Amino acid sequence: MNILFLGAPGCGKGTQSKKLIKEYGIPQISTGDLLREEIKSGSTLGEELQEIMSTGKFVSDDLVLSLVSKKITQDECKSGFILDGYPRNISQAKSLDLLFTEKNINLEYVFLIDVPFSTLIERCTGRLLCTTCDYIGNTDRGEKIGDKCEEGELYQREDDKEETVKNRLNVYKEQTAPIIEFYENKGILHKMIGGNDPDALSGKISTILKS
What we know:
Layout: E1 2-6, H1 13-24, E2 28-30, H2 31-40, H3 44-54, H4 61-72, E3 81-84, H5 90-102, E4 109-114, H6 117-125, E5 127-130, E6 136-138, E7 154-155, H7 162-176, H8 179-186, E8 189-193, H9 198-210
Parallel strand pairs: 1-3, 1-4, 2-3, 4-8
Antiparallel strand pairs: 5-6, 5-7
Helix pairs in contact: 1-9, 2-3, 6-7
């Protein structure tokens, strides 16, 4: 079962991916996570990536594709995988399609989660992450940067600051939205209306996967 989630930053791709990971036991491939791991390593490449991501821009297509190619050939992906937010443009979509063909991999489901940009800006700028565990906090709940979690403390990602979020959404609209037609033509795209009820959305996704 090979799945791709599309949608603007903050639409809930990561949340839905985690639900499927628990249900089907297949790994999530998030290019954002792969890149942030490199940043945390403190390498020269990591420093370069930090500068790029903090302004809302994307890294080179070749680098991202090589990271994805390496990941999907690992043993943990033999039973399937979940791609979260990649590809982001037509060029990446076509390159990924060629990669899948070379490796005899079928992409079976593409879920597009559609959420109004105004909602996404509020959601992203209020999001707080834990330095240690997977907890996701939010300023709407009265939480703030520096608050203690069970294992660490809360912080805001550089790419969740308002100016950066707006830039990322504009880039998404210009570069990512056009690939919707690419997957529509393949007959594997499922458009889902997102919002504030992730459980209802996961139920709709599960129904499609089991149909």
